[in-house]
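Per your request, structure below.
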């Protein structure tokens, strides 16, 4: 379910009616050779300091002389449209850049769309007529042609520079004798006409279709069935749909699988040369019961620090970089994925299983290659010194959070007796955790107390129940150890002036900050800190909220005032964690940025510089086409200059951030589908719940016992006319004065469930008082995602990705590095506002 959806739809998606049309096979171009797009031509001129002759541009684009007729006509058309102009010598150069706007199309299920501009300015509204030319996620050039009646800038599409949807997944239906594909992604507003015999595909099945003709203002897209995926009720179908819908790579290349097969099954003597031997150190892994890949192991012992006592903490991380070399097949696939993707009952790993669950995983009682962060930490939680070095370890035990928590809770109990040999080390780890946690509180890092939910599925992959997953001190212990290692990694890059990817988190925007303060005043709360509050001000607010019965909803509002953490070579600090520098180092099995950090650390240890070389066949999710990127490289080579290393790291940061969002969207989509499926047989049942979202078209309610969210449409609130106050975040009846606000208690009845739209609609039940449930024990910090069915943005705290996930996280010797400890501090930076949408009023806010 999406919050920008503005209609309540029944269980069966309505089929669209199309007039009878003649199927044509007209080629996309009247020229016998492919012509570069306008964006590729503009890319040549953007990356050049001087104008170019037409033939020079053709050479840069590798266009043979016999193929240039159409190309020259395109140049003339671009000059006529004002995109480029001729100088006195007859050479082409860019016109004023404000004439055209480049960006990505975002479709809406109701037919209109928006152009998300590359320059970050206000989105352009694209009416239905313009959206007929394009599909969701296409890249285009547009011209601002005016403003609509709501004052929104309106765009006219001049050129489609990149077609994002070469293959589309959906349901095959028969409409008036014609086979069409109804896309699963409702943001694609075109049904696709099937032009060839679909062979084994049957009506009603889920299939993927290769597009043969793209849409235009006067014709719908055409395609042919490429893959029959199965029936909609097949076990795991929701995952098969999601990975194709969001473009998640889910099959490793033959080259990557062959490379993995050639790797040894165990660590060899040659692998441990020049490594610090830690096999006699009782390093242990601590993970969830269902974990299969183990990125990290820890060990702690007491030491004297100056005149006081402290700790020596070793965090050993799987040395993925030893096996995955730059630009080789395994690396290409890992970069393409950028992250592992987690679904209920299934994981799509970043690396083949031989590495992720085998050779790289720190499994118990086997030798493994690791990169170690060796730290000295004071009793006050200050990192006094650290060093990085390659090592070899032999895990002493594979422990679980539940097991360790039981040991720490009762050191004389049965669990402690089973682990008597490890008890002193676990107590040392608990000691360093308490020191680091105290330093975290003093630093002012934000610590959200939110409920993470866990979906329990049956053998068919369908939901049996949704249960809260409570965090304990073992979770927090590992989290603090990983945070410390990540901070040291960032500090190491910074001190050695080596470029890399930092995990950065900007503070709230002025607009969102003011909206939050207005809302807080309405519930008797205050956020201190003036115009630029620090993380410590937010931490103090969370402390005020913690014991309230509406704490979960209030924390959601606080989270919505903040923006998402991203990867960037520009270190602006991490606002939420209150660090001046922070990087991801501890999960290279499942996160590509961590692998890049490992390579940069190794380069520093060896006195070298590491500059990633993005292969010619690699397409990055940066908004820049592969052709334009190759033109930049060619231009740099021709001028005899090195490619700007910051630009390369910036591209990688954009790519990894984009693919992280892609993974989150796919996971949310599957969870939303499962929750809708779970609620299908509960029509008419009543539940108590709390309002956790208010929009102009209704209220979103999260059910108490099920952790599922649905919409009560404004038309279900009564005959009164309700006005939406965005600042106060409430709906208020003009006649009755009835208000619906965040954290209000309501009782609802399940009205409708739509699997296709991932929507659950509730009806408000009147005359039934709802008593607030007894406050549940605080589960601790974790995923602050709404436990809803995907109806609204799943709000995640920065710590969901920046602190180690509970799902799978990820003595000085000659040649080892050392440095004094990093300092923590609150980063102060403004960020981008989060999105909002309204029912029947598709206005978008400035991004």
């Amino acid at each position: 379910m999406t919050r920008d959806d503005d209609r309540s739809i029944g269980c069966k998606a309505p089929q669209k009616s199309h007039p009878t049309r003649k199927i044509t096979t007209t080629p996309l171009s009247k020229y016998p050779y492919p012509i570069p797009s306008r964006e590729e031509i503009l890319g040549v001129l953007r990356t050049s300091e001087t104008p170019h002759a037409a033939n020079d541009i053709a050479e840069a684009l590798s266009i043979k002389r016999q193929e240039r007729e159409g190309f020259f006509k395109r140049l003339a058309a671009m000059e006529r449209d004002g995109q480029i102009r001729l100088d006195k010598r007859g050479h082409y150069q860019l016109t004023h850049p404000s004439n055209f706007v480049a960006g990505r199309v975002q479709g809406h299920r109701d037919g209109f769309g928006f152009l998300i501009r590359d320059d970050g300015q206000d989105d352009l509204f694209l009416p239905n007529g313009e959206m007929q030319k394009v599909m969701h996620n296409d890249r285009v050039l547009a011209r601002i042609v005016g403003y609509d009646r709501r004052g929104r800038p309106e765009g006219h599409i001049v050129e489609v520079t990149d077609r994002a949807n070469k293959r589309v997944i959906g349901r095959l239906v028969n409409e008036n004798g014609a086979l069409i594909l109804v896309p699963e992604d409702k943001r694609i507003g075109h049904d696709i006409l099937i032009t060839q015999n679909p062979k084994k595909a049957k009506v009603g099945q889920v299939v993927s279709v290769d597009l043969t003709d793209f849409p235009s203002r006067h014709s719908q897209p055409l395609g042919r069935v490429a893959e029959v995926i199965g029936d909609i009720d097949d076990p795991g179908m929701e995952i098969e749909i999601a990975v194709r819908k969001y473009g998640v790579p889910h099959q490793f290349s033959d080259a990557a699988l062959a490379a993995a097969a050639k790797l040894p099954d165990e660590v060899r003597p040659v692998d441990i040369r020049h490594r610090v031997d830690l096999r006699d150190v009782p390093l242990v892994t601590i993970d969830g019961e269902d974990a299969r890949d183990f990125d990290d192991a820890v060990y702690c012992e007491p030491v004297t620090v100056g005149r006081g006592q402290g700790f020596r903490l070793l965090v050993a991380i799987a040395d993925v970089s030893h096996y995955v070399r730059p630009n080789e097949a395994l690396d290409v696939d890992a970069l393409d994925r950028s992250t592992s993707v987690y679904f209920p009952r299934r994981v799509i790993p970043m690396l083949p299983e031989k590495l992720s669950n085998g050779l790289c995983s720190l499994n118990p009682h086997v030798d493994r290659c690791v990169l170690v962060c060796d730290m000295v930490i004071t009793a006050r939680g200050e990192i006094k010194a650290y060093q990085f070095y390659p090592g070899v370890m032999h895990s002493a035990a594979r422990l679980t959070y539940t097991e360790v928590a039981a040991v720490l809770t009762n050191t004389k109990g049965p669990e402690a007796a089973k682990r008597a040999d490890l008890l002193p080390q676990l107590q040392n780890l608990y000691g360093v955790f308490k020191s680091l946690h105290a330093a975290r509180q003093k630093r002012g890092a934000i610590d959200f107390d939110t409920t993470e939910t866990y979906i329990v599925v049956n053998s068919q992959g369908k939901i049996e129940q949704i249960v809260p997953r409570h965090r304990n001190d073992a979770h927090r212990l590992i989290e603090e150890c990983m945070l410390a290692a990540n901070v040291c990694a960032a500090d190491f890059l910074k001190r050695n002036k080596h470029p890399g990817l930092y995990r950065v988190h900007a503070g709230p925007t002025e607009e969102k900050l003011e909206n939050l303060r207005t809302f807080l005043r309405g519930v008797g709360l205050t956020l201190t800190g003036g115009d630029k509050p620090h993380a410590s001000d937010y931490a103090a607010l969370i402390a005020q909220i913690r014991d309230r019965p509406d704490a979960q909803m209030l924390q959601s509002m606080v989270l919505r005032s903040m923006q998402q953490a991203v990867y960037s070579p520009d270190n602006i600090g991490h606002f939420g964690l209150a660090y001046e520098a922070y990087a991801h180092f501890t999960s290279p099995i499942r996160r590509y940025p961590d692998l890049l950090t490992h390579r940069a650390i190794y380069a520093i240890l060896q006195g070298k510089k590491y500059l990633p070389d993005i292969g010619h066949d690699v397409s990055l999710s940066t908004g820049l086409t592969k052709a334009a990127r190759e033109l930049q490289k060619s231009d740099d080579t021709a001028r005899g200059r090195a490619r700007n290393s910051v630009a390369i790291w910036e591209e990688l940061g954009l790519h990894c951030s984009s693919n992280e969002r892609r993974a989150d969207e796919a996971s949310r989509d599957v969870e939303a589908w499962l929750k809708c499926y779970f609620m299908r047989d509960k029509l008419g049942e009543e539940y108590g719940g709390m309002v956790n979202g208010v929009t102009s078209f209704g209220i979103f309610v999260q059910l108490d016992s099920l952790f599922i969210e649905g919409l009560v449409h404004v038309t279900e609130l009564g005959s009164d006319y309700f006005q939406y106050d965005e600042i106060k975040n409430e709906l208020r009846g003009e006649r009755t004065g009835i208000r619906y606000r965040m954290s209000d208690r309501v009782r609802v009845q399940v009205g409708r469930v739509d699997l296709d739209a991932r929507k659950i609609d509730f009806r408000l039940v009147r005359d039934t008082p709802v008593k607030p449930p007894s406050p549940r024990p605080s589960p601790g910090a974790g995923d602050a995602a709404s436990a809803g069915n995907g109806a609204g943005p799943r709000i995640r705290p920065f710590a969901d990705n920046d602190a180690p996930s509970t799902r799978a996280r990820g003595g000085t010797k000659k040649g080892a590095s050392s440095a004094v400890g990093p300092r923590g501090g609150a980063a102060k930076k403004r960020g981008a506002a989060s999105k909002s949408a309204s029912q029947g009023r598709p206005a978008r806010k400035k991004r």
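Residues 645-679 form the longest helix (35 residues).

Regards,
D.
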